[in-house]
Design brief:
Elements: H1 3-10, E1 18-20, E2 41-43, E3 64-66, E4 87-89, H2 100-106, E5 111-113, E6 134-136, E7 157-159, E8 181-183, E9 204-206, E10 227-229, H3 240-243, H4 247-257, E11 260-263, E12 265-271, H5 278-287, E13 299-306, E14 314-321, H6 328-331, E15 339-346, H7 353-367, E16 372-377, H8 388-394, E17 398-403, H9 412-424, E18 431-434, H10 435-446, E19 451-453, H11 454-463, H12 468-481, E20 496-498, H13 501-512, H14 515-519, E21 523-524, H15 526-532, H16 541-550, E22 555-558, E23 561-563, E24 583-588, H17 596-603, E25 608-614, E26 617-622, E27 625-632, E28 637-643, H18 647-664, E29 672-675, E30 689-691, H19 692-701, E31 706-708, E32 715-717, H20 718-722, H21 740-757, H22 764-777, E33 781-786, E34 800-805, E35 811-820, H23 829-840, E36 848-855, H24 860-872, E37 886-891, E38 901-910, E39 913-923
Parallel strand pairs: 1-2, 2-3, 3-4, 4-5, 5-6, 6-7, 7-8, 8-9, 9-10, 12-14, 12-15, 15-16, 16-17, 35-36, 36-39
Antiparallel strand pairs: 11-18, 13-14, 19-20, 21-23, 22-23, 24-28, 24-29, 25-26, 26-27, 27-28, 29-30, 31-32, 33-34, 34-35, 37-38, 38-39
Helix pairs in contact: 13-16, 17-18, 21-22
Length: 925
C-alpha cells in the first residue's frame, strides 16, 4: 500500500461521499472503508484487488463503482445487492465467464464497462426490465454477437469492438431501436444482418477493421446516421469526394457499387502569368501543335488521354487558367485531390524569385500541396538559370524543373513522360466506381449543351435505374470531382447542372474583366449584363450572378444593383475613428492571398456600417459595437480595431468569418496577434504584440502568471490580458475524416512509406516533414505544434508535435515523434514524451493520441520487447508520475503485416475515463 493511500484511509468518515484509492498497490479492499456507509462514489482503479468482501453490501447508497484494472477473475455478484448503483466499471480485469442470470442483473445498471477482460461467451437469457443505456464489452474474446444484448431495448451506446465476432443473427437488432452509437470495429464480420436497418436513431456506426464486402439494402434506412467508418474492409475505400458527403453519401456509394470499374483520372492545372505560353504548351502536350490565339480569357479545359503504369487509357483533364489575379478567387472551387500543377515561366524575362514565391504560394494554398512541375518555356529564345535548390527547399511539393519550347516542341517529350509518372502517383487514383455512374457521365459529356436542367438530369438517371435521391448523390460526386457543377444547396442553382464548368466561369470572368464594371468600381446591374454577356442566353444571367455570389465575388447593395468588392478603389475612405481603448487583434501572413478582404466584405455585408468600405477595408457594426478591419498587402497584415460594449463578441464573429476563409484557402494557421496591455503599450499605436495562441496556452496550463513585454520589460498578467478575449469554440464537426480509426490506419500506411525511404539516410527533420506531408495528402488538416526539441545528436529537431484539427479548428488528436535507441527501466525519454503528449500539450483531453518512434537499435525485436515492458510498468516508474496511470497495454499485430513495424495501444485512466495512446514503432536501422 502506498503512503498516500494510508493518509486517505485515516481521513475517512461515516458520511464521506466520495472515495478515490487509485493506483495504491492494494491487494484487498481496505477494512477502513467499512465506516463509509454513506459513500456514493468509489474508485479503486489500478490496484491488485482479486475479490470484493461480503461487507460490501452495506454500501446501499453507492452509485458509482470503478474496479478497473484490478485482478478480478469472477463477476462480483455482491454488486447486484446495491440497489442505487448506476455506473459499474470492471474493465481491464481477468473475468472470463458471465452467467446469463448475472448478465441480466448487469443490465439493471445504467452504465457498464466490462471491456478488456477474457470473456468468450455471454449465455442467452431473456432480459425483461433492463435499465442499461451504455454498455462496453470491448477487447474481449466474443465470437458471436451476444443474443442477450438483443433484449436490452434501453441501450443507447454499445461497444463490441476488438473481439472475434464473426456472425450476427439476422434479428439481432430488432429491439435495439434506441441505439445511438454502435461500435463493431476490429472483429471478424463478413456480413451485417438486415435488422440493422431498424436502428432509425443510430448516429454513429464504426465497422472498420472487419471483413465486410457488401451491405444489406436495409442500410439506406439509417437516416439519422451522422458518422460511418468502413476503413480496412474488403468492400474497399470510399473515394474522398464521396466521404465528404457524409454517412448518407457513403451508404449510397456502397449500395450502388455492384458492377464497378476503376477510375483512372486526374486534373492537370496550367498556371502562371499571362502571355507566358500556357495555351501553347497545353496544345503542344495534347495535339503536338500550337493554337492560333495566344491569350486565354477565363478557363480553357481539354481532355487528354495518356498511357501510365496503371492504365493505358488514363484521362487527364487539362485546365488552362488565365493569368489575371482576380481569377484566383474562383480557383478553389475547381480543385480536387487528383491534381498536378504546371507552373509556366517565360525564359525571355528576368523574373525575380519573388514571382516564383507568389505563384508557388498561390498553388500551395489553393491546392493543399499538390505536386508542381515548373516549366521554363521559350528556351529557343533565351535560357535563364534559376536557383532550383532554394525553391525546392522552401516548396517541397516541387517535383521537377523542365526547360521546353512549346513553339518548336523542344523537350516536350521529356515533360510528357514526367507528367505521366506524376499523375500515376497521385492519391486516390484507381477508385472503384459503379459502372452505371460512368455510363451516365458519358451520356452527359456527349450532350451538345453547356448545361441542362436538373429535371433533365434526373430523367437520364432514372432511365439508368437510379432513384432521384441516388442521382443527387451522384451529381454531388461529379461536382466534387470537378467534372460538372451542381450547387444543390442553393435554391436557384440547384435547378441547373453546368455540364461545362468553363462556360459558367468564363461568363463570370467576362463580368470581372468588363471595362464598364471596372470604371464603376465594381458596380453592375441587369441592364449592363445584357451587353457584357451578349453571347450568353439572357434567362441564364441570374444563374451567373448567383454563381458569383456563391464564389463570394459580389453581393447585392440595393435591389438589382450588385457590387464586386475586389474592383473597389484601393484608397482609404475618410471617416472618424477613435483609436483609444479599442480591442485590437491582428493576423500576420507569411503570404497574403488575394481577395481575403473582398470575401470578408461579402460575408459581412449585412453588418456594414454606413456604406463604409473600400478595397482594403470595412467598418461593421453589431448593436452598439463597431469594428474597423483593414489589410495591408505590403506588410501582409490584417488589422482589427473594435470599440463598444460587446467588443469580444464582435471579434468572435470576425474571427469566425476570417477563419472560414483561411480554411477554404488551406491556410488554417495564420498567426494571430494581440497587443500588450501594460501601461506603456495600452494606448500606443505600436505596442508589443503577443502570439494569441501562445498566450492562451499559457493561460490554460497556468504555468506562468505573467508574460514579459518586450517594450516595457515588465510582466503582464496573462489572465487579465486573456480576459479581454473571451471567445468560445464552435461545436465539433462529425466527419468521417476525423475518425480516430481512420487516422490510425492512415498512420500505419504512412509508416510503411517512411520505411520505404529509410535507406535514404534522411535527417529526422525531413522524416517528420514527410509525415506531415503524407497526412495532408490523406486529406487531414495538420499543424506543427512545435519544432523546438533537440534530437539525440543535438543538431536536428528530434521532437515533433503534430496536431490534426477539424475544419473549424477544433483539435482531433496529437501525434508525437521521436528517436529511440534503447529502452531500459531507467529511460526518461519515453516517459517524458508520454507526459508531454498526455498533459503538457493536450489541454482538450483528447480521447486518443499517437506516438511514432523511430527505432535505432541494432536488434529491433529486442527494442520492441523492452519498450512494451517499459510501457506496461509505467505505474511503478517514478519519472512518469500518477496523473494518467496505465490500465493496460495491448499489442495489435492484426493491424498490419510488416516485420519492421510494431503497433501497441496503451490505456490510461483519467478520473474514470479512458485515454488511449497508440504506439507505432518503426525499425529505422
Amino acid at each position: 500500500m502506498k503512503p498516500h493511500i494510508k493518509n486517505k484511509l485515516k481521513d475517512l468518515k461515516y458520511n464521506t461521499h466520495k472515495v478515490q484509492l487509485t493506483t495504491g498497490r492494494l491487494k484487498r479492499i481496505p477494512n477502513e472503508l467499512k465506516i463509509c456507509t454513506e459513500v456514493k462514489y468509489l474508485d479503486l482503479f489500478g490496484n491488485s484487488i482479486p475479490e470484493i468482501p461480503d461487507w460490501f453490501f452495506q454500501f446501499k447508497r453507492l452509485e458509482h463503482l470503478s474496479l478497473k484494472n484490478n485482478t478480478l477473475k469472477e463477476l462480483p455478484t455482491i454488486v447486484f445487492t446495491l440497489e442505487n448503483i448506476k455506473y459499474l466499471n470492471l474493465a481491464d480485469n481477468q473475468i472470463n465467464l458471465i452467467d446469463g442470470h448475472y448478465f441480466e442483473n448487469l443490465m439493471n445498471i445504467e452504465k457498464v464497462d466490462i471491456s478488456y477482460n477474457q470473456i468468450t461467451l455471454i449465455p442467452e437469457h431473456f432480459i425483461e426490465y433492463p435499465k442499461c443505456k451504455d454498455l462496453s464489452i470491448k477487447g474481449n474474446r466474443l465470437q458471436v454477437f451476444p443474443k442477450a444484448i438483443s433484449d436490452v431495448y434501453t441501450l443507447e451506446k454499445l461497444d463490441l469492438s476488438e473481439n472475434k465476432i464473426a456472425s450476427i443473427e439476422d434479428d439481432a437488432f430488432d429491439c435495439l431501436e434506441n441505439l445511438i452509437e454502435l461500435d463493431l470495429s476490429f472483429n471478424e464480420l463478413k456480413y451485417l444482418p438486415t435488422s440493422i436497418g431498424k436502428l432509425k436513431k443510430l448516429k454513429r456506426l464504426n465497422l472498420s477493421g472487419n471483413k465486410i464486402s457488401s451491405l444489406p439494402k436495409e442500410f439506406e434506412n439509417l437516416t439519422s446516421l451522422e458518422f460511418l467508418d468502413f476503413d480496412s474492409n474488403p468492400i474497399g475505400k470510399v473515394p474522398i469526394e464521396i466521404s465528404s458527403q457524409g454517412a448518407s453519401g457513403i451508404i449510397n456509394y456502397y449500395l450502388s457499387l455492384g458492377d464497378n470499374v476503376q477510375l483512372f483520372e486526374a486534373k492537370l492545372l496550367i498556371v502562371g502569368q499571362g502571355n507566358v505560353g500556357k495555351t501553347y504548351l497545353m496544345n503542344r502536350l495534347i495535339h503536338n501543335s500550337i493554337p492560333e490565339t495566344n491569350t486565354t480569357e477565363g478557363i480553357d479545359i481539354k481532355s487528354w488521354k495518356v498511357k501510365t503504369q496503371s492504365s493505358p487509357d488514363f484521362r487527364v483533364n487539362v485546365w488552362d487558367f488565365g493569368g489575371q489575379e482576380i481569377y484566383h478567387s474562383t480557383h478553389q472551387f475547381f480543385l480536387t485531390n487528383r491534381s498536378l500543377y504546371l507552373l509556366v515561366w517565360e525564359a525571355r524575362t528576368d523574373q525575380h524569385l519573388i514571382s516564383f514565391d507568389y505563384w508557388l504560394n498561390v498553388i500551395r494554398l489553393l491546392s493543399n500541396n499538390s505536386p508542381i512541375i515548373i516549366v521554363l518555356n521559350k528556351i529557343d529564345e533565351r535560357i535563364i538559370n534559376i536557383d532550383e535548390r532554394s525553391l525546392k527547399a522552401k516548396f517541397k511539393n516541387i517535383v521537377s524543373f523542365h526547360q521546353v519550347s512549346a513553339s518548336s516542341g523542344q523537350n516536350i517529350d521529356l515533360l510528357t513522360t514526367k507528367i505521366q509518372d506524376e499523375i500515376n502517383s497521385l492519391p486516390l487514383i484507381g477508385d472503384k466506381l459503379p459502372k452505371v455512374w460512368l455510363e451516365i457521365r458519358t451520356i452527359l459529356e456527349s450532350l451538345d449543351s453547356n448545361y441542362i436542367s436538373a429535371e433533365e438530369y434526373l430523367n437520364i438517371c432514372n432511365q439508368h435505374g437510379l432513384s432521384n435521391q441516388r442521382a443527387l448523390f451522384l451529381s454531388q460526386y461529379f461536382h466534387d470531382l470537378g467534372v460538372f457543377l451542381h450547387f444543390q444547396d442553393d435554391n436557384l442553382l440547384r435547378n441547373i447542372l453546368f455540364l461545362k464548368p468553363e462556360w459558367a466561369t468564363n461568363a463570370v470572368y467576362k463580368i470581372l474583366d468588363s471595362k464598364e464594371v471596372i470604371a464603376r468600381n465594381g458596380e453592375f446591374d441587369p441592364d449592363m449584363l445584357d451587353s457584357i454577356l451578349y453571347e450568353f442566353q439572357r434567362d441564364k444571367h441570374p444563374y451567373i450572378v448567383t454563381l458569383m455570389k456563391k464564389f463570394e465575388l459580389c453581393f447585392e447593395v440595393e435591389q438589382s444593383i450588385f457590387l464586386i468588392p475586389e474592383l473597389l478603389k484601393p484608397e482609404k475612405l475618410e471617416f472618424d475613428w477613435d483609436y483609444n481603448d479599442n480591442l485590437r487583434f491582428e493576423y500576420h501572413y507569411d503570404f497574403m492571398p488575394a481577395g481575403i478582404m473582398a470575401r470578408f466584405i461579402v460575408r459581412t455585408r449585412k453588418l456594414i456600417y454606413d456604406k463604409t468600405f473600400w478595397k482594403n477595408g470595412v467598418i461593421i457594426q453589431r448593436e452598439n459595437t463597431r469594428a474597423l478591419i483593414t489589410t495591408d498587402q505590403y506588410s501582409r497584415k490584417l488589422f482589427i480595431w473594435i470599440h463598444g460594449n460587446n467588443a469580444s463578441f464582435l471579434l468572435e464573429i470576425i474571427r469566425k468569418e476570417l477563419n472560414d476563409i483561411h480554411q477554404s484557402l488551406n491556410y488554417p494557421d495564420v498567426p494571430e496577434k494581440i497587443p500588450c496591455n501594460c501601461p506603456e503599450c495600452i494606448n500606443s499605436m505600436t505596442p508589443h504584440l503577443f502570439n494569441y495562441v501562445f498566450v492562451r496556452r499559457i493561460g490554460t496550463e497556468n504555468t506562468f502568471k505573467t508574460i514579459p513585454c518586450e517594450v516595457s520589460a515588465t510582466g503582464v498578467n496573462v489572465h487579465k490580458l486573456l480576459g479581454l478575449y473571451k471567445i468560445d469554440n464552435v461545436e465539433p464537426e462529425n466527419n468521417p475524416m476525423y475518425s480516430l480509426d481512420k487516422i490510425l490506419n492512415d498512420l500505419i500506411e504512412i509508416g510503411s512509406r517512411i520505411l520505404e525511404r529509410k535507406f535514404q539516410k534522411r535527417i529526422e527533420n525531413l522524416i517528420n516533414d514527410d509525415i506531415v506531408d503524407l497526412l495532408r495528402t490523406q486529406g487531414h488538416n495538420v499543424a506543427d505544434q512545435t519544432r523546438s526539441g533537440i534530437s539525440s545528436n543535438s543538431k536536428d529537431a528530434g521532437e515533433l508535435d503534430i496536431m490534426i484539427r477539424m475544419n473549424n479548428g477544433i483539435p482531433v488528436t496529437i501525434i508525437e515523434c521521436f528517436r529511440l535507441e534503447s529502452c531500459g527501466p531507467k529511460n526518461t525519454v519515453v516517459s517524458g514524451h508520454l507526459i508531454k503528449l498526455l498533459s503538457k500539450y493536450d489541454t482538450h483531453e483528447l480521447q486518443r493520441k499517437f506516438i511514432i518512434v523511430f527505432g535505432e537499435a541494432e536488434r529491433f525485436d529486442n527494442l520492441w520487447v523492452s519498450y512494451s515492458h517499459y510501457i506496461r510498468n509505467l505505474n511503478s516508474n517514478d519519472s512518469y508520475g500518477n496523473k494518467y496511470p496505465i490500465s493496460g497495454f495491448s499489442v495489435r499485430d492484426e493491424l498490419h503485416s510488416f516485420a519492421n513495424m510494431k503497433v501497441g495501444i496503451s490505456r490510461h485512466d483519467n478520473n474514470g475515463e479512458t485515454v488511449e495512446v497508440v504506439h507505432i514503432l518503426l525499425n529505422m536501422k
